[in-house]
Amino acid sequence: MSAFISTVKGKQMSDVSLKAKPGQYLTFQLMSEQYGVAIETVREINQFGEITPVPRTPDYVKGVMNLRGKIIPVVNLRIKFGMDSQDTTRDTCIIVIDTEIGQVGMIVDSVKEVVDLQESQIEPSPVLGNENAMSFVRGMGKVDNKVVILVDIVSAFSADQMGAMAHFSHDEAKAA
User: Fold this and answer.
1) CA–CA gap between residue 10 and residue 5 (Å, rounded)
2) Which of 13, 107, 138, 165 is least surrounded, with the fewest CB atoms within 10 Å of its CB?
3) Is 176 exposed, middle or buried (CB count within 10 Å of its CB: 0-12, 13-18, 19+)?
4) What is the C-alpha separation between 19 and 30, in angstroms, rounded?
5) Backbone angles phi, psi at 122, to 5 degrees
6) Distance between CA 55 and CA 69 in Å, rounded?
């Protein structure tokens, strides 16, 4: 399998496989589509709360939040994935994931459930145009006649984007 390695602030980021592996996935919703992220990358799920905007950040970065004394960047996944923004609802959540730069919060419309996918339930991601732009899609899960788009959220960000998030979250932490 193909693998890529890049460096962010002296830390190595590696993607060992481009295909989703069998296992547990936390499913969440953006617009009318369901996505799944490997449960081992999920640190916790929080209700949408106070987010402090940070000037001069990309449009998909909502800001930073204080998570038990730790300042972490928060990303609006709808905007990052090229969708229209939406007002928050009572179902809006922040999924906190572990990355090589530390924890990052991801705003999603709602969290659904944890599903256990077997090899037979996972199809490779189809080629839908720009392969680089879709490199974070690891496969398609089949759950009860529905399709769950399996993603590696960290791969949706370039090394520069991850470095920028690490930089401004640490700057905010020093200022706080």
Assistant:
1) 12
2) 13
3) exposed
4) 22
5) -115, 125
6) 21
Task: Give me the pLDDT at residue 168, please.
Answer: 58
Distance CA 77, CA 104 (A): 11
Q: Please tell me the distance from the alpha carbon of residue 133 to that of residue 98, in angstroms, as a whole number.
A: 22
Instruction: Give helix then strand counts, H and E, for the chain.
Output: 2, 13
**Tokens at residue 143, please?**
């759950």
Residue of higher predicted confidence among 13 and 33: 33
Interstrand relation of 146-151 and 33-38 (parallel, antiparallel or unpaired) = parallel
Q: What tens digit of pLDDT does each residue of 101-141 get?
A: 789 999 999 999 999 999 999 998 877 665 555 678 889 99
Sheet holding 146-151, edge to edge: 110-117, 23-30, 33-38, 146-151, 137-143, 122-123
